[in-house]
Write a structure and sequence with these properties.
Radius of gyration: 19 Å
Oligomer: single chain
Distance between the termini: 22 Å
Bound molecules: (3R)-3-hydroxy-3-methyl-5-(phosphonooxy)pentanoic acid
Shape: globular
Strand content: 25-35%
Number of helices: 9
CATH class of the largest domain: Alpha Beta
Number of strands: 12
Length: 323
């Protein structure tokens, strides 16, 4: 197989504006790609093996491409390994690859870092062998490793990371949403890690216990997403912010907010955000605030005072790409 010396691909993280958790129950969610990216570089390696070097975990391991049953793989590196193996299997390639990961996205925080890494890995590996996969193929292959990290994910993270921009997502169906890239999104990281799978299971337990109560709450969140899409398209950020606030209250009722998240949400609102809510699975991780440009720095300062780490970011239309 003819391959290039090295190929680097990058993919964006994502931010769910409305609809996390209800999306797992087949209702629509509104998400956007953000301009914080994961970069993956692929080079040639010895046949039948892969060398994975993940800077964010400070880990480097060599693994066989045909794993036997006794192989134990580091939990942090397993999804990257699965992305490499699945892509090579799909391409019917047996050559080894070295994979270097350099991600600026915080891990396990609700910004889709694992999906961005996986999407960029699939793209870099395939392009390294001169094969241009379709966006849908990249999304399907990266979803395989998402299932390993998150249990039964909706697929929203890998989808947004592949296509970029704004997306209304429902049961794997995607509708591109026109957005203005000029709205700043202020992310506040509580710096508390949590597992998406764990939070999804927590909602599932409560849903089974209180089905008649949870169903209408999830349905209301689904309606918020449909309405939010219209406000995002119309650049009516004031109303979009109001819907984010309502969504936050409903997420708290599902049991996925936390004192750390609430502190950041209130800090952002009091500093002039149109709206603020947790983003992703909750329980820790990040909040997202929507605000006019002039108030961003003030909101970022208030997030720091409330114990969080701010990122001022923007929506990006650029999904996965070759660097
Ligand atoms: O926290 P994240 O980035 O993994 O986002 C999870 C979003 C959920 O709706 C809670 C789960 C899913 O698979 O859609």
């Amino acid at each position: 197989m003819i391959s290039m010396e090295e190929v680097t691909a990058s993919a964006p993280g994502k931010c769910i504006l409305t609809g996390e958790h209800s999306v797992v129950y087949g209702l629509p969610a509104l998400a956007v790609a953000i301009d914080i990216r994961a970069k993956v570089t692929v080079k040639s390696y010895e046949n039948g093996a892969t060398l994975i070097h993940a800077k964010q975990f400070n880990k480097k391991v060599c693994l066989p491409l045909k794993p036997d049953r006794n192989l134990t793989i580091d939990k942090d590196l397993q999804p990257i390994y699965v992305s490499v193996v699945k892509t090579l299997e799909f391409l019917k390639i047996k050559d080894g690859v070295e994979v270097l990961i350099d991600s600026s996205l915080p891990e396990a925080s609700g910004l889709g870092s694992s999906a961005a890494v996986s999407v960029a890995t699939v793209k870099a590996v395939s392009e390294f062998f001169g094969i241009h996969l379709k966006e849908s193929e990249i999304s399907t292959l990266s979803f395989e490793s998402e299932k390993i990290v998150h249990g039964s994910p909706s697929g929203i993270d890998n989808t947004v990371s592949v296509y970029g921009g704004g997306i209304l997502f429902k049961r794997g169906r995607i509708l591109k949403v026109k957005t203005s890239n000029n709205i700043p999104l202020i992310i506040g990281d509580t710096l508390k890690k949590r597992s998406t799978g764990g939070m999804v299971s927590k909602v599932r337990e409560n849903y089974l216990k209180y089905t008649a109560i949870f169903k209408p709450i999830l349905a209301a969140i689904g309606k918020i997403s449909l309405q939010a899409k219209k406000f995002l398209e119309a650049s009516d950020f004031h109303k979009l912010g109001e819907l984010m606030n309502i969504n936050q209250a409903l997420l708290e009722s599902l049991g996925v907010s936390s004192i750390e998240l609430e502190k950041l949400v209130y800090a952002a609102r009091e500093a002039g955000a149109y709206g603020a809510k947790l983003t992703g699975a909750g329980g820790g991780g990040c909040i997202v605030a929507l605000a006019p440009l002039a108030r961003c720095q003030n909101i970022a300062s208030k997030i720091i005072e409330a114990g969080g780490k701010p990122y001022i970011t923007r929506i990006t239309d650029t999904g996965v790409k070759i660097e």
